[in-house]
Design goal:
The protein contains twelve helices and seven strands. By secondary structure, the chain is an alpha+beta fold. The strands form two sheets. A five-stranded mixed barrel has the order 1-2-3-5-4. The structure holds adenosine-5'-triphosphate and magnesium ion. Magnesium ion is lined by residues 37, 167-168, 180.
């Protein structure tokens, strides 16, 4: 009956997520990750400043373009609300001394990094991800055969993410995880100064990425039963949950100016993601009609 208590409007399963901003501090020296990824990344333990809690294992990465940290945070939080297998996101302050081999251009100390909850990778699949060729085909076969294939395809379309190569997928021995969203919703990096302007918002709602890699792979392998439209319909039901997330993010009390800007921008992006749910089915339909979704095209021509 009462609508005065805002907690009443927050679904029970989201309360913990929205209860506080995901701001952490790196605890001790992190381990540099060596791989083909573009941005410098480390694995370490992170804790909530002032809280008496054990550290949590995280992977942190330095994003030289400030706009990309908003996008990662927004995508990380939105995906939790949509129950997608994306590691939980964090903003992590780190002392430069705790980041071995950090980029020379990094001078701000402490530096703010994008973090995500560490997921232990199945070692066999991990080594395949770096081999390309048949090994990459094996990874695509595996992920496309699971729910993460079609669900991840709908998700990547929702956030216009062109960057889903096999090294941005991770198998933990039981399930597949999707991570790395700093290249999603790319026009934001150009439009963020005017994001509150309605033209810019329309452009962002209508934007589609150059490619949806996971969708292409899923359609190639499962031309008639890929189920991507169904996954998109499921996501479309959750506009309200995304709006609640954005409302609750705006209530977070954040002391550091740099972080409050990031949270404010990420909340705007979450609202945009909610708006993008409406044209999602159309975007997917258009993607499926393209000749490069080869198998489907052949099926529809027969
Ligand atoms: N939550 C996580 N759990 C375990 N490993 C992770 C996690 N997040 C990232 N990694 C590891 O860190 C690497 C770098 O992360 P990420 O892919 O986000 O960086 P990137 O530089 O943006 O990559 P790209 O070159 O694909 O743009 C990944 O390839 C993966 O091995
Ligand atoms: Mg990556």
């Amino acid at each position: 009956m009462s609508t005065s208590n805002p907690k009443k409007t927050v679904p029970a399963d989201l309360r913990e997520l929205v209860s506080r901003p995901p701001i952490y501090r790196l605890l001790g020296v992190a381990e540099k990750l060596h791989g083909k990824h573009l941005n410098a990344a480390w694995k370490g333990l992170a804790g909530v400043p002032g809280a008496d809690e054990p550290g949590i294992p995280v992977v942190v990465k330095h994003l030289p373009n400030a706009g990309q940290i908003y996008i990662e945070l927004a995508c990380g939080l939105a995906s939790q609300v949509l129950s997608l297998p994306v590691p939980r996101p964090a903003l992590v302050f780190a002392d430069l001394d705790d980041l071995p081999s950090h980029p020379v251009g990094l001078t701000r100390n402490p530096v703010l990094l994008f973090g995500s909850l560490f997921q232990a990778e199945d070692p066999f699949t991990a080594q395949l991800a770096h081999q390309g060729g048949q090994a990459a085909e094996y990874i695509w076969d595996q992920v496309c055969g699971e729910k993460a294939g079609p669900a991840g395809s709908a998700w990547d379309e929702l956030v216009a993410n062109p960057d889903r190569h096999v090294q941005n997928l991770l198998f933990d021995g039981t399930k597949w995880w999707l991570f790395d969203h700093n290249l999603a919703l790319q026009p934001i990096s150009k439009l963020y100064a005017s994001i509150e302007d309605s033209n810019a918002r329309t452009q962002l709602v209508e934007h589609t990425a150059r490619v949806n890699q996971l969708l292409e792979q899923v359609v190639k392998r499962r031309p008639v039963d890929h189920g991507v439209e169904l996954e998109a319909r499921q996501l479309s039901k959750h506009a309200q949950r995304l709006k609640i997330l954005a409302i609750e993010m705006r209530k977070w009390r954040v002391l550091q100016g740099q972080v409050s800007d990031i949270v404010r921008m990420a909340a705007l992006i979450v609202d945009l993601i909610a708006l993008r749910l409406e044209p999602l089915a159309l975007h997917i339909e258009a993607r499926l009609r393209k000749p490069n979704a080869e198998a489907l095209w052949n099926t529809s021509m027969n």
